[in-house]
Amino acid sequence: MVNDFPAAPNEMKRAIFRGIRASLLALGSATKVELSHKLGISFPTISKFLSQMEQDGELILVGLDDSSGGRRAQRYAYNPEYMLGLAIFLEKTETNYTIFNCLGEVKEQGTAASVLKDDILSLTKHIEDLILKYPKIKSAAIGVPGSVNNGRIIYIPSYEKYHDFDLKGYFEEQLSIPVVVENDMNAAVLGYHDNRRKREKSSLVYLYLGQNGPGAGIIVNGDVVRGSSFFSGEVSFVPQYDDRNFLQALNGESEIAAAKLREEERIDAISRLVASFTAILNPHTIVFSNDEVNQSMINQIAVKSAVYIPEEHLPELTASDWKQDYLYGLQHLGLDLMISGTKI
Questions:
Q1: Residue 31 forms beta bridges with which residues?
Q2: pTM of the model
Q3: Please, are residues 225 and 235 in contact by the beta-carbon 8 Å criterion?
Q4: Residue 297 dihedral angles phi and psi, to the nearest 5°
Q5: Euclidean distance between CA atoms 55 and 332, whole angstroms
Q6: Nearest Cα to Cα of residue 308 among 277, 266, 271, 281
Q7: Strand, helix or coil at 224?
Q8: Cα–Cα distance for residue pair 291/282, rounded to 1 Å
Q9: Cα 218 from Cα 189, distance rounded (Å)
């Protein structure tokens, strides 16, 4: 491939491939002229790239346009089965995964045993088995219940084997495909935002009480907020009472206390956090997991939050399917990796 375009630096070639893939997936189909105009790339260059992609099976010819007096233009579509992606997330009690094509269509979705208490070899075997079954997998997006800095897990309570571990670097070397590693709540809020077609510049907070303690994913003006040290959203530490932070307020001092904790106290703790997010970020929406709160609780949280902050400034409170939002967010990240590709 390099010899076909000796004048174009590798990064430029990747950018052209990415532009063609993204355009065809967004438009459904296009001619060479349409792609040339949309991407601002010369017709001869577009033609060379499309010829190579067609030869590799990456494109599908979907017909000829009506003639305007000259030769009828060929219309191209992207072959959604040319590449597959893997989205997988690690939880305390299970491991969830999805195999998807370039249109986001699910080829397989399933659940396996948790690997968080095991060493990295258990997760490696699980992923390698999936790739053996689906050899067209060309990217992997991995979600973890901890803080992540560019693929390295920097904070993951209770799972010391994964702490300070470069999961991205390890799997890229092991699998020879691009890998992205993301915090669970960052992926979930991204998935909710993208799947609901929210306003591009909207601001959201996704709050999950979780198997591993509470966390939040934050989008401000359409962008995921990760923070200066990639610690954003670790709401367990937010101080709420004289002697308790948010995690302690939710769980009490012991398992017995947690079992006896009244729902009103939990609602008060959540409402204080809603008020804090409102005062600091003033988001459009705060999302809860629908397996943790029902509409009655949401109504109570709204009422209680208004005790702490003027009601007219409170965001919309809603609930969603956290697991599906999480997988969808990882799928979004994995698809971005696939479109970017490594072909030069």
A1: 75
A2: 0.87
A3: no
A4: -65, -40
A5: 27
A6: 271
A7: strand
A8: 25
A9: 7
Are 107 and 101 within 8 A, CB to CB?
yes
Pairing of strands 285-289, 204-208: parallel
The rounded distance, in Å, linking the Cα atoms of 37 and 142 is 36
Question: What distances in angstroms separate CA 216 from CA 30, 206, 207, 234, 250, one per listed residue?
Answer: 40, 5, 5, 7, 15
Q: Is 77 exposed, middle or buried (0-12, 13-18, 19+ CB in 10 A)?
A: middle
Q: Which residue has the tokens 């995921």?
A: 224
CA distance 126 to 110: 12
Cβ burial of 308 (10 Å; 0-12, 13-18, 19+) is: middle
Q: In this structure, what DSSP letter does residue 315 have?
A: P
Question: pLDDT tens for residues 57-77?
Answer: 999 988 776 655 556 788 999
Rg (CA), the chain: 23
What would the two tokens of residue 118 be?
Answer: 């095991």
Dump pLDDT digits (tens) for 311-323: 999 999 999 999 9
Please tell me the predicted confidence (pLDDT) of residue 252.
Answer: 65
